Structures are given as C-alpha cells and as structure tokens.
UniProtKB/TrEMBL annotation:
This is Kinesin-like protein 6. It is found in: Mitochondrion membrane. It is a peripheral membrane protein. Residues 902-936 form a coiled coil. ATP binds at residues 116-123. Keywords: ATP-binding, Coiled coil, Membrane, Mitochondrion, Motor protein, Nucleotide-binding, Transport. One of its GO terms (biological process) is microtubule-based movement. GO terms for cellular component: mitochondrial membrane. It comes from Menidia menidia. It holds the Pfam family KIF1B. Belongs to the TRAFAC class myosin-kinesin ATPase superfamily. Kinesin family. Residues 13-361 form the Kinesin motor domain.
Length: 1032
C-alpha cells in the first residue's frame, strides 16, 4: 500500500519513504534474522535482544524489497507473482519520481534525498544497477520525454551539474581543469540563496547525454577518491538539474531546480572500549551529516510549535546548499533505506528515528519566475518607451537631433542585449554537444580497445565506482606509477605508489608484471617481488590499497562472472594470506560462527585503512606503526566463556617504543584526521615544488592524530578458578598470562588461602564436604600474588613496569598490586584478605563456577600508576575487604556450550552430591540410634567413626582438586596449541600428531582423577556402611 503520487502536491510537508532491501552476503553468512515487518505504510522493528521490545513508525510510503522477487530473462527484478508485495524500481519511481517530475514541470523546486547506512541500498534506489535503473536515470528519461511531448508549446532548457562534498570541500565532478585546492567556494546572494561559485553547468537536450555526463562524473569521483585517499561512503553526491520552461503564448517562464542527493553513510561507530577519544570525531568528515541532523531536528520542533531560536544551516556546506530543500522553497522527498538484519538493528533504528523527524518539516514552495525572462521583458518595455519618444520628436533643431541619436544608440544596445540573452542557450548547447561527441568518441575507442587488449579494471569499496577506470596494456613494455612524462607509461595515483612502481610486459600474448625495488605489489593476496605472469581475473593491489582486476585477452575471458571479485573479495584474500579466514564447505557456503563473522568483516574493513595509515605515517615521518589484532573477550570473562571477539589496532612508536591500543571506532576517527594532515602536507609540498626528500609535518601534540598521552596497557589475563574456596581447600597455581592473540606474556604464581578472620590458614579439619554448610556463616580467604616470571613486556624494553589488577565478586572497583619496574621476574609478594560476613547462595554459586581474572597491565615511562578508589569499598578496621554485601549482583548466565571434559566433571560432581546426601541421611539415622543407646562407650566409638569418615572424605576431595590443577593446565596447553603460519603439509602432520598426544594425555589425566575420586568415595561409603551395620 502507498499514497498516491498526486497527494504530494496538496501539502508542502517533506514526504518520507522507507525501503527495506534483501539480505546481503554478509548477513546471509551470519544467519541473520529479519527484524523488520511492514503493514501498509507502517514499519515495525524488533529488538533482537529483547522479544518484548518493538518500535513502530508510520511514513508516507513504505516499500518491501526484501523478499518475494525473481529475476526475469532481461535481468530485471520483478515480483514473483503479479500484484505481489515486492516493490521494484518501477513502483518506487511511480510514487516518488513522477511526483518530483510533476513538481518541477509546474515550476517548483524539487529535492530527493537518499539516507541510510552504507550498503543499505541508497545507491541502488538512486542510480540502480544494470537493467534495474534507479530514480535518477528514470527521472531524466521521463523529463526529456515530457519536453518532447510539449515542444510545440513550450521551449525547454535543461542544465546539468554534478558535485561531491567530502570533508567539507566541494568538488566539481564535471570540471575540465585540475581540482582547485580546498575545493570550490559556497557563496550567498539575496536572490539565488547559497550557490557554488564556479560550478560547471552543462546544457543537455537528451537523456543519453545526461547519462554520459553521469558516467563522466562517476569516473572523476573514482579518480578523486583514489588521489585524495578518500572513502566514498563518507562523501555526499549532488546532481542538480536546472529546468527552464518558456511558454511563448502566455509569455511566462518557469524555472525550477531539481536536487538529487545521495547522502553519506549514516552508520554509527560502535566502540567496545569505554575510552573517549581526546580528538573529536573527524572534525569535518562528519560535520555535514551531523549538521543535517541538527537542522532536521530544529525544523521538526518548529513544525510542532516549539520555540526554535536558531536553525544551523550555515554550519556546514551540505546544509547551506540544501536550505531551500529543508524548510525553504522546495517540495522535498526523502527515501530512507534499511537493512532488515538483526546485526544492523542499531543503525536501522537510528535511520527510522531520523526519517520520523524529517517528515514533520514543512516547506514553503512557490512557482519560480526566471530573472532572465524578466530582464527581457524590462528591456522590451524600455525599447517601446524609447520608440514612443522618438516618434513624438519633431523638427526642433540640432538639440532634438542629438537626443534622437542618443535614443537610437540606446535602443540598438538593448536589442543587442536581448539577442545575446536569447542566443546564449544555443551557444552553450553547441559547446556541450561538442563535448558530448568527444566523450562518445572516447567511449567508442575504449570499447574497441577492450576487444583488442588486456587491461586492469579498478575495484572500489563503493560498487558504483568499481569498473569505471580501465587501463589498457598494449604490446611492449609499459611503466606503471606516478610517472606521466614517458610516452609508454600508465599513470596511476594513490598512497604508496612510487614514481616507477612496476613494469608490465605484453609479449606473445603473455602479460607479466615486475615490481620495482621498494614498491609494494600483491597478486591474489600474496606479496611478490619477482616477475610474475598474470592470468585472467588475477587480483592486483598496488601500493597501500590501489586494487585492480586483471582482464586477459578476449580469447581468455569466456563467460566468467566477474561480479564476485568485489572489494571484500580482495580484502578477504589478503586476510587469508595472514591466516585470518572463514572455512567454506564444498558448496561454497560459509558455516562460520556468526560471532566470528562480525570480527572477520571488521578485520577486512580495517585492513586497507591500517595499510594507508602506515603509509601516511611513513611519508609524514611520524615513526608510528599500526597493526591489527583480534582481541579475545573470553580472556576478560570471569567464567571463561568464548564470547564475541573484537578487533583492535596496536599502535607503536618505533623510536620511543611506546605502545597504545585503539578501538575500531577510535582508529577510524583518527584515520580521517590523519587524512586531513596528509592532504595539507601534499598541498604544501606542491606549493613549494619539493620533488625530493620527505619533510616531516610538525603539529602541536594535542592536535596530532598520530600521538596520544601514554597510559597503562592491558597486556593479558589469567584465570584463577575459585572452586576450591567453596570447600575451604587451599590452592596454589602457576598461571600463564595470555595476550589477546594467545601469546604467553608471563607466568604468574598465585595462591588462594582459606583463613580465619585474623588471617591464619585453616587446617584440613575445616574442609567442607558440602559447600552449602557455609551458608549464613562467615567466610574468609586470602588472594596471594607471589611472583611474575618471564614478563615479555619488560624483556622487550627494560624501562617499563607492570601491575596486576583483579576484582572479586561484587567489588565495586578493581584492586591493583604496587607497580614494579625494570625487572623481568619481579617479586610481587602481594596479599589481600577478603571476607563475607554472611555467606549467600549467590556467592557460593560464584565460587563454584567462576574465576578471578588477573589482569597484567604494562606501564610506560610518563604514565600514572593504576590505583583503586578505596573510599567507595567497604573495609574493616583491620584492612579486610568485605564482599557479598547486602546487594549481591545477579548471577551471570552460564554458557550452555561447555567442553566435554567440563560436562563429565559436572556429572561426577552431581553423583558425589547424591552420595553425600545419602551419607548425610545415614548420619541422621545413626544419630537417632546413638541417642537411644545406653552404652556410652559404644556411642563414643560411633562418634569416632563418623569423624574418621568425614576426614577421609575431605582428604579425598583435596587430592582430587590438586589433581584437577594439572588437568586444567593440560587443557590450557591444548587451547594454545596451534600450527605455525608457515607450516607446510609435513608440518601440519606433525601438528596433528602432537595434538593427538596432548589429547590422549589430557583424557588419561582426567579419567585417572575422576576414577581415583570415585574409588576413594566408594571405599569411604563401604567402610561407613560396614561400621553402621556392625553397630546397628
């Protein structure tokens, strides 16, 4: 269901449409669920984490393009059944495009805004793909069709402009000359409002001419993105169609501007860390989209009667140019595109809220009269007055003759001005036609070359910009790089591209590529330094991230599907070469864990950005290296569950050896700030004509995106399991501290000591058979950190230090050991006393299922030590920390996917509990018999036997827990055991053999420990039954 197109004209409110796209490959691989439902023009979105949370919105138009479609023989996506709910491109145009066109033909300004996260379908809705043409090309087709249908009554003139806004700079995508430093300027006039000074406007008289200009603009956009190292998903693209209609009979001229705007991706940056970046989000990179949101919010508040002091149109370039579209003289439509996947819930909900605010905006659209036509009318009126004066003049002598001469000169000037205005359109049109013919000739030549020679095809993160640039490799030897002076050179630009980067040789229909010294060349994910023969559909990465697909001779091409070699394919191939990949079945379907998919796609998204950041650091002389790491969040979980992983960037200063760890969001923000610094460096270098040497860019430290204040760094964690405390059994462990990538950072010696309230260790007689006996009673224990050995952090640089941090149960703040410096094997000798005054079931559950996570923090020169805020923690006068206070936290859910060994242990523990319950029942029966017994000596023997059985059971449990310490160590070794990245087939076979031996040792130790415990318990039960049978 949808509103009628004619309804758009009844009001001047902004009309809002929502379109839901199909799942993409990432979402299908992740097994995503659809969280969007649609009824008529109402949209509902379900929170995937809360089945009771559902938000509903209502808009002017709602399009279901998620399912219910098929592809016909011509490649068009159409509904599976006639009248089905699937909304194709034609249906979207009928509702939105026809309304915009009608408004423009009536003389109103009209605007179409496309909003949504990157990859949500904005570009598909606006531009289309293949035969599925989008709103813009369909609008141009219908516009020129309407002009042809009315050409007898109306003379129409159409001008086309295309621009891009990136980092608050305006780029003319149709400019003939070189790009102006800083971009074009936006100025303001009282009549015109805001406009772009020097923006090229090209007259057009056919839809193919407009289509060709759009292709030219896309080519310029692709080249500019490569040269500027820009991310097209962060740029806004504006197409401006100026329509002038001259109605001869009515002597009326209508003039309207059609703005077609593809906004930058609206995705939110999520950070797994809690740190706030000292440098604000990308300064100018997100300014336009942020300001647009502020303008929409202010206008929406104004529409509902709220008092609004200021609408911030002037705060960004985009909102200046869209002032008429938002609250001004225009009829405006916004199409917001959504992903229906549960993994995009936050972005989709944000888009819906944004669109809901936009639909409240009210514009004041009026029919526009052309200032040029008004000038012609004024000149004609003035000419008529001059003719009347000439006719009234009689023979009044010399003075009358002089005045008549002046009037005739003025009349002639006005007629020439009228003629110049009327012929200006024809001149512009002839110039545009010459350009169009030249462009057409170039396209024809390119198509001819494609059928004759091999070439490389650009691959861009934005699918709309892929395949735009084709670089042909003709016979002979061709240099590729920055050099453009040689007649046999292929000029490319981008980060890390050398003056003479590599050499193509095309001989005997074989093409080879030879990298030059110091240049970076990657083929099919592997770096190459020697001459390599290229095969059809080989993937090339030149420099930091200039990606190309090699297309062989026509005889090699066949019917291959090139579309699968998209930008993600290149990065996935590169990640696989680094050992980061997802397994696929023989059918090619990915069966990876969805939690792994998220971090994998984060990783391949950040890979090219890290390469570019490293290249900028090198060229700017910053001495900073960036490296991607996958952080295992299980290392920080008290239950050791394999939680969702995260991607972080390790930043190292090569000079000072200082290290920082940045979250994805922080690195992305800094990357855009680095680009700003790099662009200023290039502009200054070009201005000073420096051709040799690298000049370091100096910035104040507080403004430098490559630098941060030094702070403690989390190096790794170790888990000290607390189960023995529930039975009052002491534990002494030698723990391996593992880093985020599984590397061993240090060995930590730690103890858990059950003790009295004064700190004295408990004896064996105090061991509990059943932890529930401790309920409601006081429990004391000490955590002892003895020594840290083989600290890799300090071994790499002796001017470093370390601290150990930990938090037990409901402690509100983590506690830290004193800082130790310059020692690879530091002695800690740190002891902390904890006490629960009234032990709760919640604490007992925590002790039996959780571990205290010991965090190894690395200190660097200049950073402050970590300290706990003791004033917010409850302590006794003796310095004992109180846990299990009056408001215990809720127990965290236990992961259902435990290992086989843990499940076996849990079963054995349940059996022991049932045995213990039967023993307690027998003890109760014995106590009743002893109470009625007359012989005191016999009663004494029974009490002695009971005490003896309890002591034997406690000793058996102690032996079991000590044996399980070695079992747990063997399990950790199994988890860390991985094949080397350089392993060949023989190395993998050796790894499998070693893994089999480790598994066998682990199973034998586990079976021995459980078997010994069962035998000890069976013997205790048997002896106790024998005694009870004797005495009964």
């Amino acid at each position: 269901m949808r509103a009628k197109a004619t309804d758009m004209h009844s009001k001047d409110c902004v009309k809002v449409a929502i379109r839901v796209r199909p799942f993409n490959k990432r979402e299908r691989d992740a097994g995503s669920c659809c969280i969007i439902s649609m009824v008529s023009t109402s949209i509902s979105i379900q929170d995937p984490r809360d089945s009771q949370s559902r938000r509903s919105f209502c808009f002017d138009y709602a399009y279901w393009s998620h399912s219910g479609f098929t592809r016909d023989h011509g490649g068009l996506y159409v509904p599976e059944e006639p009248g089905g709910r699937y909304a194709d491109q034609d249906r979207v145009f009928q509702d939105l495009g026809e309304g915009i066109l009608d408004n423009a033909l009536q003389g109103y300004n009209a605007t179409l805004l496309a909003y949504g996260q990157t990859g949500s379908g904005k570009s598909y809705s606006m531009m289309g793909y293949g035969p599925n043409k989008g709103l813009v090309p369909k609008l141009c087709d219908r516009l020129f069709q309407a002009i042809r249908d009315n050409q007898e009554n109306i003379q129409c003139q159409v001008f086309f402009s295309m621009l891009e806004i990136y980092n608050e700079q305006v780029v003319d995508l149709l400019s003939r000359g070189s790009r102006a430093p800083g971009g074009l300027r936006v100025r303001e006039e009282q009549q015109r409002g805001f406009y772009v000074e020097g923006l090229r406007t090209i007259p057009c008289e056919s839809a193919p001419q407009v289509e060709q200009l759009m292709e030219q603009g896309t080519r310029t956009r692709t080249t500019a993105a490569t040269h500027m190292n820009a991310n097209s998903s962060r740029s806004h693209m504006l197409i401006i169609l100026q329509l002038k209609q001259i109605l001869s009979k009515e002597s009326i001229t209508k003039q309207s501007n059609i703005y077609l705007v593809d906004l930058a991706g609206s995705e939110r940056q999520r950070s797994s860390g809690s740190e706030a970046d000292r440098l604000k989000e990308g300064t100018a990179i997100n300014l336009s989209l942020t300001t647009l949101g502020n303008v929409i919010s202010a206008l929406a508040d104004m529409a509902v009667g709220k008092k609004v002091v200021h609408i911030p149109y002037r705060d960004s370039v985009l909102t200046k140019l869209l002032q008429s579209a938002l609250g001004g003289n225009s009829r405006t439509v916004m199409i917001a595109t959504l992903s229906p996947a549960d993994i995009c819930y936050e972005e989709s909900l944000s888009t819906l809220r944004y669109a809901e605010r936009a639909k409240r905006i009210q514009n004041r659209a009026v029919v526009n009269e052309s200032p040029t036509e008004r000038l012609i009318k004024e000149l004609k009126a003035e000419n008529a007055r001059l003719l009347q004066r000439l006719n009234r003049m009689g023979p009044e002598g010399r003075r009358a003759g002089d005045e008549s001469k002046e009037l005739r000169q003025l009349l002639t000037h006005n007629e020439l001005q009228i003629r110049a205005i009327q012929t200006l359109w024809e001149q512009h049109l002839q110039e545009a036609l010459k350009d169009w013919e030249q462009q057409y000739a170039n396209i024809t030549q390119e198509r001819r070359m494609m059928q004759m020679h091999p070439y490389i095809l650009n691959i861009n993160e934005d699918a709309q910009l892929s395949g735009v640039v084709k670089l042909f490799i003709q016979e002979g030897e061709w240099d590729i790089g920055l050099c453009d002076s040689s007649p046999r050179s292929i000029c490319i630009r981008g980060l890390g591209i050398q003056e003479r980067h590599a050499v193509f040789r095309n001989e005997r229909r074989r093409v080879t590529l030879t990298p030059q010294t110091g240049s970076k060349v990657i083929i099919n994910g592997n770096a190459v330094s020697q001459t390599t023969e290229l095969q059809h559909l080989d993937r090339l990465i030149l420099g930091s991230n200039s990606t190309y697909l090699f297309i062989g001779y026509p005889s090699e091409r066949g019917g291959d599907d090139w579309s699968r070699y998209d930008y993600d394919y290149f990065q996935s191939e590169l990640a696989a070469a680094e050992g980061i990949s997802l397994g696929e079945s023989s059918a090619g379907q990915c069966h990876a864990d969805p939690s792994l998919l998220a971090v994998f796609y984060d990783y391949i998204q950040l890979m090219p950005m890290v390469a570019e950041a490293n290249q900028m650091s090198q060229e700017l002389g910053k001495g900073v290296e960036f490296k991607l790491e996958i952080k295992n969040l299980a290392l920080s979980d008290s239950k050791g569950h394999d939680l969702q992983k995260d991607t972080v960037v390790r930043v190292t200063s090569t000079g000072s050896r200082q290290v920082w760890m940045w979250s994805k969001a922080k690195f992305v923000n800094r990357k855009f700030l680095m680009e700003e610094v790099y662009q200023r460096y290039l502009a200054k270098q070009s201005q000073d004509n420096r051709e040799e040497g690298v000049t370091a860019v100096t910035l104040p430290r507080d403004k430098d995106p490559f630098w941060d204040p030094v702070e403690p760094l989390l190096l790794g964690t170790a888990h000290l399991w607390l189960q023995s405390l529930a039975f009052r059994i002491p534990l002494e462990e030698q723990l391996e501290v593992l880093g985020s990538e599984g590397t061993e950072e240090a060995i930590l010696q730690a103890q858990l000591v059950p003790c009295t309230s004064t700190g004295l260790p408990l004896g064996e007689d105090e061991i509990l058979i059943d932890p529930s006996e401790a309920l409601g009673r006081r429990m004391d224990f000490q955590l002892v950190l003895d020594q840290c050995c083989g600290v890799r952090w300090i071994r790499e640089a002796r001017n470093r230090g370390l601290q150990i941090g930990f938090r037990v149960f409901d402690c509100s703040q983590p506690l830290y050991t004193p800082a130790v410096w310059h020692n690879v094997n530091p002695l800690l000798d740190h002891r902390v006393h904890f006490a629960s005054l009234h032990t709760s079931q919640c604490l007992l559950d925590y002790l039996q299922s959780s571990a205290v996570v010991l965090e190894l923090w690395g200190l660097q020169e200049g950073c402050t030590n970590l300290r706990a805020s003791l004033e917010v923690m409850r302590m006794t006068a003796e310095g004992v920390f109180i846990i299990d206070d009056s408001h215990p936290p809720e127990a965290a859910p236990v992961d259902s996917e435990l290992g086989c060994s843990v499940r076996a242990l849990q079963q054995d523990l349940n059996e022991l509990k049932s045995v213990n319950a039967s023993l307690r029942k027998e003890n109760h029966s014995l106590r009743e018999q002893l109470h009625s017994a007359k012989n005191g000596a016999e009663g004494g023997r029974v009490r002695l036997a009971r005490h003896s059985s309890d002591a034997e059971f406690a000793r058996a449990l102690k032996v079991f827990y000590h044996s399980m310490t070695s079992v747990r160590g063997q399990l950790q070794r199994l988890r860390r055991h991985r094949p080397s990245e350089e392993s060949d087939l023989l190395g993998l076979r050796l790894f499998v053999d070693e893994q089999s031996l480790l598994l066998r040792d682990f199973s034998e130790q586990l079976e021995h420990s459980v078997s010994t415990l069962k035998q000890d318990v069976a013997a205790i039960v048997r002896r106790k039954r024998e005694r009870s049978g004797t005495w009964s």
